[in-house]
Amino acid sequence: MTSLIDRPAATEQRDTLATAVPDRDLASAVRVLRMEAEALTALAASLDGAFTRALDTLAGIEGRVVVTGMGKSGHVGRKIAATLASTGTPAFFVHPGEASHGDLGMITRADAVIALSNSGETNELSDVVAFTRRFAIPLIGVTRRAGSSLAEQSDIALILPAAPEACPLGLAPTTSTTMTLALGDALAVALLERRGFTASDFKDLHPGGQLGRALLKVTDVMHKGENMPLCRLDTSLSDVILEMTAKRLGCVGVLDDSGALVGVITDGDLRRHLAPELLVERADSIMSPRPKTIRPKALVVEALREMNEKQITTLFVIEADRPLGVVHIHDCLRAGAA
Length: 338
Hints:
By secondary structure, the protein is an alpha/beta fold. The chain has 2 domains: 21-197, Rossmann fold (3-Layer(aba) Sandwich); 218-334, Roll (CBS-domain). It has 15 helices and 12 strands. It is elongated. 32% of the residues are buried.
């Protein structure tokens, strides 16, 4: 077994160079981030009518957006496809190598293709490009070279501005992949806004995880129908107590003759008015008028914030003054809105 003192001098030299130097490490990180930030600024300034035409194409197809790229461009392409799909533009990634062995069948004439290649001369893309030309499938090329094969074959070429890679060797894709990724985000968000994609649409595509919970509406967690604690203005307080006990939400909504919500009685109201004659009184004698309510399309997080600010535990969900349901603070917490 070779001891530490027997190691070749070259190995020891590499170890010395690899020793952590905090100031140098931070300077390297800052340089990379600044170079990439400058490249993104240049990219934003370079956008022109080609970007708008690309949006027109992607918004106008009946099929899906197919993203393809090789190597690091492929990794970026997968993320772009995922972002498009999650924001209302059906999309998927096709590996160019697999495309040459049958996966071209995944691309239809109703689709559009976004091909990514920093050099614009990626050999593995040739079959995908040829396929789009043969069947008149819209092709959007993303490259930094305006005179490249990809740019010349594309229906629309989105040209990345000239910017050095952040890698000190100028070899590892860094700045170029950052610009490509950001351009994909720009396409996805612009399409989202053009289509009027809403938080509700977003929730439909993101039902799981924290994001899905954050987009829950009060109508998703409220108690409704027979589970709503309700009474009339002339209901005796003895019956109000029975209703409150049965529904176990700590309150009862009070309705007028038209069915509109005009008041609320909480368990606190009952305690404050506790007296021998309480049970023979009517609901309207102790109810709090103009109860705090919330609209049906409100998010659960909004309801939780409202209850915290008003120091209450329930909100009636109403539409045109009619109660649709009631949401309790515990419902919001169980839904993960905290």
